[in-house]
Design a protein that fits this description.
CATH architecture of the largest domain: Orthogonal Bundle
Radius of gyration: 19 Å
Number of helices: 4
Helix content: 40-55%
Largest sheet: none
CATH class of the largest domain: Mainly Alpha
Number of strands: 0
Shape: elongated
Distance between the termini: 48 Å
Order of helices and strands: HHHH
Structural class: mainly alpha
């Protein structure tokens, strides 16, 4: 079994991990099972540049796209790039919500929307459009 937690606050991630350990211990203790929990990887929460995030929000609003802030928590390149340059991320929907998988698929209008937001946010940051 695999379990993955994502949250923008590191302390909350630690609390979630502790709750998992406590829950597994309690359940296994009740039914007489042994268990082993092993953390395979850990990605610390990354706070993206507020100005870049705002530019993405404004670009989505400019085009009238629905948007929401989300927490990725995955090891995306942007997380590493944020260590050296202002960074944010844009996510687009995938068919049936399947992402990072060989069966991932996207509708043309979704990729077009993502590209529009990226272009408009980049132009704003370059002070080409307002």
């Amino acid at each position: 079994m695999a379990c993955e937690f994502r949250h923008p606050i590191d302390a909350t991630l630690s609390e979630m991990d502790a709750a998992l350990h406590e829950g597994v211990k309690a359940i296994c203790g009740k039914i007489g099972l042994t268990y082993e929990l092993k953390q395979i990887f850990y990605y610390a929460p990354v706070a993206f540049n507020a100005e870049c995030v705002s530019a993405v929000r404004r670009a989505a609003d400019h085009f009238g796209y629905k948007r929401r802030d989300i927490v990725s928590g995955a090891g995306h390149d942007a997380c590493y790039m944020s260590l050296v340059t202002p960074t944010s991320m844009i996510f687009t929907p995938c068919v049936d919500g399947v992402s990072h998988n060989e069966s991932e698929d996207i509708k043309l209008e979704w990729s077009t929307a993502g590209a529009n937001v990226l272009l408009h946010a980049a132009l704003e940051k370059a002070e080409i459009v307002g």
